[in-house]
Amino acid sequence: AYDQRSSEGSTFLAHLRGEERTYGNTVLYARRESRTEVTGDVLEWTDVFVKDGDQRPRNVSRCDGANCSQPSLSADRSRIAFVRVPRN
């Protein structure tokens, strides 16, 4: 159990879920993307984005059809790691 009104509790739960990480004013998260193929099929996947303070979010994974998730920022904040699962 945790206090839903607590920002610390919400941050901890997001870490456990593995899709959003907050490091001070930097947030890493996975977002669902999609596109319609020439055949009319809709391709869906997740990309990893980083948002620094008031700046616009940037796609740092560019997975383009593969699913990327569980982002993490290095201790010196110079690198972002994530899990990439190729599509079948």
Mean pLDDT: 85
Structural class given helices, strands, pairing? Answer: mainly beta
Q: Tell how many strands the DSSP assignment holds.
A: 6
Low-pLDDT stretches: none
Rough shape? globular
Radius of gyration: 15 Å
Helix content class: 10-25%
The helix/strand order is HEEEEEE
- Output the number of helix runs: 1
Kindly report how far apart the N and C termini lie: 38 Å
Strand content: over 45%
Characterization of the model:
By secondary structure, the protein is mainly beta. The chain has 1 helix and 6 strands, in the order αββββββ. The protein has one helix at residues 7-17, and strands spanning 20-23, 26-36, 42-52, 58-59, 67-73, 80-85. The strands form 2 sheets. The protein has a 4-stranded antiparallel sheet with strand order 1-2-3-4. A hairpin with a 5-residue loop joins β3 and β4 (58-59).
List keywords for this structure.
two-stranded antiparallel sheet, mainly beta, four-stranded antiparallel beta sheet, 88 residues
Which helices and strands appear, and what pairs or packs with what?
Layout: H1 7-17, E1 20-23, E2 26-36, E3 42-52, E4 58-59, E5 67-73, E6 80-85
Q: In a few lines, what is going on in this structure?
A:
With 88 residues, the chain is mainly beta.
